[in-house]
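sry for the spam today, last one i promise. struct tokens for design, 418 residues
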């Protein structure tokens, strides 16, 4: 982030918070912080805001690079370089780093050491509609980091580590560049010496199993139970199965169901939809056909005697839809959408035969004289999609011609004026 042109802003407040002069040494800062932090700790009835302010002041002034920025440019420069609040760490973590818990006895602070939570690992899991209808179990092999069993996640044989001198144990470094008079650029990044951990381990003391990394790779097979009626996008969570790390609450592995398209059935909530085409004869005179369901059962679908099925109509079968999640013995409906295929043409004999069977046509209200005064017309078959596409292209070309004429006319007017 680029800093603005910095004036000499207030660069004494942090020293006043700790009650030390600007010339205070690192040891003076430690002593002042310890004394004030114990006095103002919330577990001893102190002011939480004062306790937080002390931790922030000490965090800045105990870091040589941050202290240099603060002394030269003030608090605003730290905020611009490290985000609002100056990248502040948990004040209870800073306090615990001095006392290893609580100096008040009783097994440590009632607040306890706050551990950060590791990130969740999210995996998509493709499932078929049959899987969601019948339920299934899928075995998946995954690799993850686990704490080294040989060193218990310490990274060293002795269990000891040293605060990184490159970042003073913060795990972060701030790089400053002077861009011009009163202009600076500050960038915060993980310390490359300790890889952001804030501590280093000597080569001799490194754990031989994890090589000082504190974690090792482990392969694990998870059984993912997909229950009947689960929905597309539903999550199946395995708590605490993500990557492990020292001083971290392990995150979860989350599988997100992704339903694959089915060639025949469509799902909407707990209901299923299927398309079926009938010949005109079937629509008028009755039909029956076999429908293979998602679980392999064969359903006989048939019309009632004398029933006529109209084009684009729906019929439903109760309790043949999807199982309801959590109540698998209850199911939605299966809807069948009927399309009726008409013949392309009929012979005169077929027309005469149908006229005798079908209900009579309505009597014409037109007289012979009215018909003689009319002009004969001819009906043509048309593809409306193609017709609309052709008209749109024609209109676009027409608009382009109008625009060309408009510009051309303007040029002629200019020429006439010259």
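last one done:
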């Amino acid at each position: 982030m680029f800093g603005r042109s910095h004036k000499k802003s207030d660069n004494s407040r942090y020293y006043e918070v700790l009650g030390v002069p600007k010339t205070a040494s690192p040891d003076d800062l430690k002593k002042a912080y310890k004394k004030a932090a114990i006095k103002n700790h919330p577990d001893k009835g102190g002011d939480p805001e004062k306790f937080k302010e002390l931790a922030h002041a000490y965090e800045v002034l105990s870091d040589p690079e941050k202290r240099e920025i603060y002394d030269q440019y003030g608090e605003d420069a730290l905020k611009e370089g490290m985000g609002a609040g100056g990248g502040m760490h948990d004040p209870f973590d800073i306090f615990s780093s001095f006392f290893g818990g609580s100096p008040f006895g009783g097994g440590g602070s009632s607040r306890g050491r706050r551990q950060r939570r590791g990130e969740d690992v999210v995996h998509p899991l493709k499932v078929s509609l049959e899987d969601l209808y019948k339920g299934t179990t899928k075995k998946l092999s995954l690799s993850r980091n686990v704490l080294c069993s040989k060193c218990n996640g310490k990274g060293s044989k002795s269990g000891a580590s040293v605060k990184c001198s490159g970042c003073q144990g913060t795990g972060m470094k701030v790089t400053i560049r002077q861009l011009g008079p009163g202009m600076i650029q500050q960038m915060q990044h993980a310390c490359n010496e300790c890889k952001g951990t804030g501590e280093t381990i000597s080569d001799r003391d490194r754990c031989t199993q994890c090589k000082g990394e504190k974690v090792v790779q482990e392969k694990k097979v998870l059984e993912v139970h997909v229950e009947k009626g689960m929905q597309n996008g539903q999550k199946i969570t395995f708590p605490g199965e993500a990557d492990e790390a020292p001083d971290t609450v392990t995150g979860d592995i989350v599988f997100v169901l992704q339903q694959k398209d089915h060639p025949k059935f469509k799902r909407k909530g707990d209901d299923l939809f299927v398309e079926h085409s009938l010949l005109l004869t079937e629509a008028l005179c009755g039909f029956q056909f076999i429908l293979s369901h998602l679980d392999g059962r064969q359903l006989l679908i048939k019309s009632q005697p004398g029933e006529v099925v109209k084009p684009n109509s729906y019929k439903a079968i109760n309790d043949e839809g999807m199982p309801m999640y959590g109540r698998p013995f209850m199911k939605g409906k299966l809807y069948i959408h009927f399309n009726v295929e008409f013949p392309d043409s009929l012979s005169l004999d077929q027309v005469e035969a149908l006229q005798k069977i079908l209900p009579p046509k309505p009597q014409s209200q037109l007289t012979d004289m009215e018909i003689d005064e009319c002009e004969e017309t001819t009906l043509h078959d048309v593809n409306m999609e193609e017709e609309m596409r052709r008209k749109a292209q024609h209109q676009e070309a027409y608009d382009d011609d109008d625009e060309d004429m408009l510009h051309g006319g303007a040029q002629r007017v200019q020429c006439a004026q010259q």
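The CA atoms of residues 287 and 302 lie 6 Å apart. ok im logging off now
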